[in-house]
# Entry
Amino acid sequence: MALEAATRDVPRVPWTRRHLLGLEELTRDELLAILDTAERFADAERRRKKRANLAGKVVVNLFFEPSTRTRTSFGLAARRLGADVLDFSSAGSSTSKGETFIDTAKNIEAMAVDLMVVRHASSGAPYLLAQHIQCGIINAGDGAHEHPTQGLLDMFTIRQKKGRLEGLTVALVGDILHSRVARSNIHGLLKLGAKVIVCGPPTLVPPAITELGVEMSYSLEQILPRCDVINMLRIQFERQRSGLFPSVAEYARLFAMDGARLRKAKPDLLLLAPGPINRGVEITPEVADGPHSAILQQVANGLAVRMAVLHLLCGQPGEA
Ligand code: NCD
# Structure
């Protein structure tokens, strides 16, 4: 299907939001509008056509934490849609001279910026910015809170590979406590009718998470045969205090996806990982590179999903 159709299509609901801060606040229809728009961009993406949806717009990547996939993907998505892109990293900036987060953002906004893509180690940072500046904000990961475009690209990949989300059993395995990817997946997947199981060592799975409507398990072995999809989350060493599990080797023995575990799973199990992966910790190399894994497909889909989000937030509706 051509992008021309996509960009002229009216989403199922008229898109009214200026920001994408989290999947928690999106409705089912809004989630579907993004996924459906991304589907058409994915087709067009293969044709690598450069578009003018965001011509004249300025998109800034404002990253206060490291990133490989998210940052490059937003940058490329914005350029494909014809925007001018600025890249800001906190390293080497005036934040090291004492400038506050809000002042930094306001100064960048003063250069007539239309959209800011923000990543920050503090949960809630993009929400704070949305209260202080006028341009649109996209949350590219805030602390352990949400990472909405990662949640969306995970859901997009599941729907692409399985043909649906409704009725599927999706497990999120690993460091649930510190994972913003887990929280965005939970909010999105539940709204689109999937069953969600969170699984990991007791110290990394907060029991209150069941209040969101998910099942909880401390045993990958037990849930494995029921899963249609497993999303292997990275141990967030940078967010952990020490002592949450005895050793990396023990974690891997109990929770890593390896060939032996794969043989106990459904034959068509789909394996996802948001990346970066620690090979041998969350997933062994032969499984990460094997036929069940859609890790690189997720990265490819991330581009389409981010094009869709940029387009819905600030693209010109009739522009193809
Ligand atoms: C994730 C993140 O930064 O939250 N990475 C990503 O954006 N693909 C997951 C992670 O760092 O583990």
About this structure: The chain is about 40% helix and 15% strand. Residues 200 and 218 are 5 Å apart (CA to CA). The longest helix spans residues 28-47.
